[in-house]
Amino acid sequence: MNAQTSTQRHDAFLREQLQRAGLRATRQRLGLAELIFGQGERHLTAEGLYAEALKEGLRLSQTTVYNTLHQFTEAGLLREILADPRRIYFDTNVDPHHHFLDEDTGDMEDIPAEGVSVSALPTPPDGKSIEGVDVIVRVRRSA
Ligand SMILES: [Zn+2]
């Protein structure tokens, strides 16, 4: 009983988030939002989310998953991290921070913003100012 109530409350919260972001709360978007934001902060890929959606019995295409992730990103609900041209991660933590990327497993882990200090940044081009620095520290199991 309690779980049901908290699910409903969570649903209302997600609905409100979507509406505030200017996105209609369609059943597909709500279902995906539930998967994305219902498990605490995490980093996911379009492929991984699609697999989760199938497992949950959501009926949607890979394209829908992909488009929804990009809509959420444009709306500021997710942050996109380009690990390399073939691997894009979506982060539920949109505050500034850095990452460890495990090259063996593909797992991504947060590094707090203050955990990295970058000194000697180059002078930005004329008329530009530095907006932010995103660091990905690539790790591998040590031999
Ligand atoms: Zn992160």
What does this structure look like?
The chain is of the alpha+beta class. The chain folds into two domains: 2-90, Arc Repressor Mutant, subunit A; 96-139, no CATH class. 37% of the residues lie in helices and 20% in strands. The chain has helices at 2-20, 27-37, 46-55, 62-74; strands at 43-44, 79-84, 87-91, 97-102, 108-112, 136-139. The strands form two sheets. It has a three-stranded antiparallel β-sheet with strand order 1-3-2. The protein has a three-stranded mixed β-sheet with strand order 5-4-6, with no helix packed on it. α1 crosses α2 (27-37) and α3 (46-55) packs across α4. Bound molecules: zinc ion (ZN). Zinc ion binds next to β4.
Task: Set out the fold topology.
Blueprint: H1 2-20, H2 27-37, E1 43-44, H3 46-55, H4 62-74, E2 79-84, E3 87-91, E4 97-102, E5 108-112, E6 136-139
Parallel strand pairs: 4-6
Antiparallel strand pairs: 1-3, 2-3, 4-5
Helix pairs in contact: 1-2, 3-4
Bound molecules: zinc ion.
The site of zinc ion (ZN) has 6 residues, from strand 4.
Secondary-structure-derived class: alpha+beta
Distance between the termini: 50 Å
Query: How much is the average pLDDT?
Result: 90
Radius of gyration: 18 Å
Order of strands across the biggest sheet? 1-3-2
- Report the sheet-strand fraction: 15-25%
Helix share, percent: 25-40%
Low-confidence runs: none
Quaternary form: single chain
GO cellular component, one term: cytoplasm
Protein name: Ferric uptake regulation protein
Organism: Spiribacter salinus M19-40
Pfam family, one: FUR
